[in-house]
Amino acid sequence: MTRIKKSRNTNENGAKRAPRTKKAERTIARKKQDNGNKSGSRQSVGAQPQSNGGKAKKDPRIGSKKPVALTLPTTKEAPIAAVRAVKQAPLTDEQKLAQLENDPRLNNLLDLLEEGKTLSAADQQWLDKQLNELERLMAKLGIDDLADADDDEFTDDEDLLAKFDAGEDLLKQYQEDDK
Fold first, then answer.
1. 20-24, 32-36, 85-89, 98-102: which range is least confident on average?
2. Whether residue 125 is found in the same domain as residue 156
3. Euclidean distance between CA atoms 133 and 141, whole angstroms
4. What are phi and psi of 23, to 5 degrees?
5. Residue 6 resides in a domain
6. Distance between CA atoms of residues 41 and 146, nearest Å
7. Separation CA 126–CA 109 (nearest Å)
8. How far is CA 93 from the centre of its chain?
């Protein structure tokens, strides 16, 4: 087979080219007519500015820039500004004494001492301080532990019998009131 150099010219069997037209006669290609909305139009539909006194309407979909916590709070805490220190009336000596007597830590430490266990230095120091405060309040109020214990013991059989009779009378009176 013989080699033939390829050319760009077409022969008579090839596709025919359109005849050349003058530049002035050519039609100017127009831009394709747009149908529908532009791409990304969902986000810009509500953002059409209005001329009402120079103020544009704010897009309602744009929210607050305040950061939002993504985790649930573990404890419910009131804001510090909202919580005010309420001034309480100072406790009376009777209230202080009742508070000391009902202190669970004091009761637990006293129970440990009664069992014969030794306390740590910090616990012992705290216990001594509380007991001193308890004694001071009792002395201030005129309460004596020994006097209360002596009231329960009757030295005379007649006193014991009189107290029993008084209790019996109170019981009868209560039963009559109940009816």
1. 85-89
2. no
3. 12
4. -60, -35
5. no
6. 92
7. 10
8. 36
